[in-house]
Amino acid sequence: MSATDAKPYGKVVENGTQAVEVVNELKSTGYGFDDIFVLAHQKDRTDKIADTAGIQEIGIKEEGLFDSLANVFRSRGDELRSKMTSLGFTKEEADFYEEELDRGKVLVIARRHT
């Protein structure tokens, strides 16, 4: 399996503190700034956790221009699922994770930068 075929890693945690801990663990195993993302159902919560953890948010580079622009018109749930599938999760995985985010949890995502 090549790096471009590698499945992303996803871990659901209860809160931002746990998300930062998981991010730090991933960094210590060799994942870098461009490899780790967090998602929460509320955009401002995602921003805060990403800033605290010292990582970036899923953006145009990961999603592509079309999906990034389309997200302006999507519901938050649709936007989150789009972001997840752009990183390599299947539709079914994205649906599962989005339901967890609906419950107030946080998703930490890691993938090898290609």
TrEMBL record:
A Pfam short name: YflT
Domain called General stress protein 17M-like: residue spans: 11-104
InterPro entries xrefs: GSP17M-like_dom (IPR025889)
Identification of the protein by name: General stress protein 17M-like domain-containing protein
Species assigned in the record: Paenibacillus hunanensis
